[in-house]
Structures
1.
Amino acid sequence: MKIKSAVLNGVDEEFKLTDMILDEPQAGEVLVKIVASGICHTDSTVKDGTVPMPFPAVLGHEGSGIVESVGDGVTNFKKGDHVVVGFASCGECQFCRAGMPGACERFNELNMGGAMRDGSHRIHTVDGDDASVFFGQSSFSTYSIVQENNLVKVDKDMDLRILGPLGCGFMTGSGTVLNSLQPEPGSSLVVFGTGAVGLAGMMAGVISNAAHVIAVDINPERLEIAKSLGATETINSAEVDPVKEIMAITDGKGAQYALDTTGVPVVINSAIKSLAIKGELATVAVGKKPVPVDFTNDIVTFSRTIKGVIEGDAIPQELIPKLVDFYHKGQFKIDELSKLYAFEDINQAFEDSKNGTTVKPVLVIDESYSA
């Protein structure tokens, strides 16, 4: 079938809305009419060349939409179901079987390798050339083919235009706190970086009843947003030493938990130094530079832990419904962080994300949709 996709033809090029050809769903696959798709920093890492991918490529991995049809063997979804599209996982390796799909042994291959699980392609140019699929969905398209286990069914009374980012950015931040760090009530959590991922993690800290939920950034406007979402303290690290401020807030003990969403070496080292004895740092960012760490003096001496977390250590089918419930309760205000853009304004949306104008840009791909 003919679809419209935002195609990226090379590093640092702009997206071009292009007619493409999409195959029919094969066994275990679902055809989804995409309503909207969030723009995530990971999309930008392909655009700027940090993460290599064969071109032409159709990016987008925070899709939400409506099931159009299903392939053979699909039993959990039917035409008309409303869905959020998550990341791809094989479902067969030891980590997938243990309920840790973010640690899937084939994660990089299936999400950033450019092909589907069987090594073939579903998206093609009108001339017949294969296009790379991203995260098993390529949601910068009017339609998408995805594996059944990528999908999460959601209630039809929810606005699909704000739900897509639950498939990656919002899930990564909140899941890292709720699933991986698991701060106890009364504990202290500091979040470095108040983009979509960081603010989601911060809201999860509030949900966890942490006594101190500290937001650190250099953007005053973002810090004000953090306050409005429940941050107990904010620190502008362009003006003060964040480590000293965190130590003062925590009576000289340091934070028990920290989340880095920046990938910036100096920020990561500040996060480490701000930890208490036995403190834990989770880092989720795709950084561009190596991070030098003094393991003897900053890690071993204080029995601190650093862990990398992918997709919030989440099972999307378990976490996303919980996040929707938190949203209904007014605890996870994803609508306040999202700004809707027309599909043809995709390049402006990326620019607004890069310069910090918008926390979470969301492309409305199906303009006929109404909640």
2.
Amino acid sequence: MQVGIEGVGFWGDGIPDWDAARRFLADGTLPAEAPRRPAPRMLAPNERRRAPDTVALALVVAEAACTAAGRDPAALPSVFASTHGELAITDHLCEALAHDPLGVSPTRFHNSVHNAAAGYWTIGTRCLRAATALSAYTATFAQGLLEAAVQVAAAGEPVLLVAYDAPARGALGQVARSEGLLAAAFVLAPPAPGVPTLSLALSGPAPAAAPGALAARYAANAMAPMLPFVELLAGGHGRAALPAGPASSLHVELSA
């Protein structure tokens, strides 16, 4: 199966955009100043402050990918992939249920659901296209990429893929580990001249490769399995194998 890569967005602690990520991979350069938290333009200032980290992450990279691709966000079906979702809020709700059940916040609850970021995105962009939210533990990114690519192949139209994870908190952090903020988004489309082409194939498990600079920097984040793919795109060509399940890998090859 083949798809084109029309646009990329990236955000990680200390590396707040795709250009900065490529510079870091090229020569180790980090921005002199980087925001501590993503600030998606589609949210008003008050909403930005209230939005959970996962929502802010997902929206800022989705905006960047659509801008880079020159695509109208309202026209794109989307796939949102997160290993754990909003763990900080989930931990807070579990604590509240254990100690003060009547004090559970409705606002916190609606931000805890796994499709919260997809909901904010479709409302903010006035997008009426289908939105999918999925999780598959360490295979989350590979399964999200596969889902988006299948949608592109089936419908013959572009699809937005957004992948993100944030820090774990409290007791959940002992069993669902994740540190820092990390997200990336990609506009996938049918192959076309002048657009980098990605070939995908499922196969058996692949041996672990040595981590690149981004993979080493964000190794503790739950979305770290995505980073060999991000580094592949930054290099412009080559191959990578992504964990796709207990006994499978998603092999990807990029050509100009």
3.
Amino acid sequence: MRSRQPVQAFQLLIMAILFALALAVVFPFALTVFSSLASDKELLMKGAVLWPQEWTLDAYRFLLDNPQFTRSFTNAVIITVVGTTINMTLTVLMAYGLAQPDVRGRKLLNFMVLFTMLFHGGMIPTYLVVNALGLIGSYWSIWLVNAIAPFNMIIIRSYFQTLPKELKESARIDGGGEFNILLRIILPVSMPTIVTFTLFYTVVNWNTYFQAVLYLNDMDSYPLQVFLRQVLIVNPSELGLAVTDAGYQYTEGVRHALILIAALPLLAVYPFMQKHFSKGMMMGSVKG
């Protein structure tokens, strides 16, 4: 009985720490949700609320009627969907090629990928290359610069190397080409890993901010994160965002609603990918 007391005390301590961490995550999120549903008068007096006295959807109506918000949200969706598709296509193809032991120059290519993880070209050289290619002002400046994340490619390659050789050999005997083997055999058994890194790329593309400011020179092409920064940090009156034709302003309620909407797509997607997430993270790290 005495031997169990230290164990139980340790378990209670762990539970208390986890509860505190969960509360630290849930509290600001709940504060944002309820503040976005409060009236402007109440927020003006209190700053933020956990339970509004007067419930209203005016902040969300304002954003849906705001063409700048709808345009930036649409841009973010385009950047995320197309960018993630390009990321996963190129990453999987490169990982599969480098996972084959008989590919010529495989060691050199692996070294080049690893080198880019340790030494980056830097902001100015990258900008000069993008500018020389004529990609400034185009979404391709974002998609191509972030086309392949070396770390993600290495993990996926390592997982492909753990797959039984018999899978590919039996397919080759049946006359299957490399692309058909990848598409019909390798990818179906690799879904946890594929889904995991699709989520990683989706988060990166959805949260694109710095490169959008650096490479895009038109406000109409800015994604949602740039619009969010303008509303939260920069004085709206300096950007012509303060008042619309209907007379609405970027109040505290609107800002809370915008924060929630910017985070909501990822929060909505994650539960559907959660069952693959933990398994995918472990499967690619077995073999280096």
